[in-house]
């Protein structure tokens, strides 16, 4: 789970998508030595600007609404969709940070390393924000129910891989075997595997955020979930382009 120090980021603004469109300085080279075409810098810059504006705007709205409603809204219960979403998305984000750090040590490709840095920074900040919600609501960081219970109770079917030794399903999570494969890969093989795993991981986060938007109505969490949808869609598009460039 998120370390105690992560609570310091609870009031921080969501910087998701800020660097998702980092550009290649040079064409990537595949395992056979054939150069890949350089990406469209202008197009990727536009993706970054659109994602950044949308996410920052949504986060500011979430912060403002949270301040305005804090004195009149009762805190959510420990088994609410809000509490479950905050707990499970922290676990989900923590694995995203873990994969980002792994690939940064397994490749010298600047575009992949920049993407990994952006994901690690953004998702750790968001994880701290959700940690802070639970602290503000007076709720424990760990719930009494299995992970993803809130999503199932809202009528949402979800598929995924075991998120813990207890076997709870978490959409898009990489398996221990896949994480070990990433640790043992290097170069373009590590880049491909990271992009494949992170695309699936982002789609899982989208599934969770969209489920909360169908179930929950707390303004702070709703604005946050919308920001997650906007930023992760932009990053998925970027990663699909990067994966195509690597065959």
What would your notes on this structure say?
This protein has 247 residues and is mainly alpha-helical. It is built from seven helices and two strands, in the order ααααββααα. Strands 1-2 form a two-stranded antiparallel ribbon. A hairpin with a 6-residue loop joins strand 1 and strand 2. Helix 2 packs antiparallel against helix 6.
Helix-residue proportion:
55-70%
How many β strands by DSSP? 2
- Could you report the average pLDDT, rounded to the nearest whole number? 76
Query: Tell me, what's the shape?
Result: elongated
Q: Assess the beta-strand content as a share of residues.
A: under 5%
Low-confidence segments, given as residue ranges, are: 1-39, 52-65, 67-72, 159-168
- Structural class label: mainly alpha
Topology as a string of helices (H) and strands (E): HHHHEEHHH
The description of the largest β-sheet is: 2 strands, antiparallel
Distance between the termini: 35 Å
Radius of gyration: 18 Å
Strand order of the largest sheet: 1-2
With helices defined by DSSP (H or I, 4 residues minimum), what is the helix count?
7
Produce the secondary structure layout.
Layout: H1 41-69, H2 81-104, H3 110-136, H4 149-153, E1 161-162, E2 169-170, H5 176-184, H6 187-215, H7 219-245
Antiparallel strand pairs: 1-2
Helix pairs in contact: 1-7, 2-3, 2-6, 5-6, 6-7
């Amino acid at each position: 789970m998120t370390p105690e120090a992560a609570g310091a980021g609870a009031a921080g603004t969501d910087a998701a998508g800020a660097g998702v469109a980092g550009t290649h300085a040079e064409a990537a080279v595949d395992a056979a030595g054939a150069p890949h075409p350089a990406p469209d810098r202008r197009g990727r810059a536009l993706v970054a600007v659109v994602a950044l504006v949308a996410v920052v705007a949504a986060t500011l709205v979430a912060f403002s609404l949270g301040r305005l409603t804090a004195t009149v809204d009762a805190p959510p219960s420990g088994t609410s969709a809000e509490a479950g979403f905050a707990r499970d998305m922290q676990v989900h984000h923590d694995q995203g940070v873990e994969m980002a750090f792994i690939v940064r040590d397994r490749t010298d490709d600047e575009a992949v390393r920049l993407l990994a840095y952006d994901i690690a920074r953004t998702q750790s900040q968001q994880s701290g924000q959700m940690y802070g919600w639970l602290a503000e609501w007076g709720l424990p960081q760990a719930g009494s129910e299995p992970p993803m219970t809130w999503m199932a109770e809202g009528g949402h079917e979800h598929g995924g891989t075991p998120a813990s030794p207890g076997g709870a399903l978490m959409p898009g999570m990489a398996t221990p075997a896949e994480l070990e494969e990433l640790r043992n890969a290097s170069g373009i093989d590590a880049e491909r595997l990271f992009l494949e795993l992170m695309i699936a991981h982002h789609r899982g986060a989208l599934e969770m955020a969209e489920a909360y938007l169908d179930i929950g109505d707390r303004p702070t969490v709703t604005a946050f979930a919308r920001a997650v949808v906007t930023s992760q869609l932009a990053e998925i598009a970027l990663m699909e382009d990067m994966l195509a460039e690597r065959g």
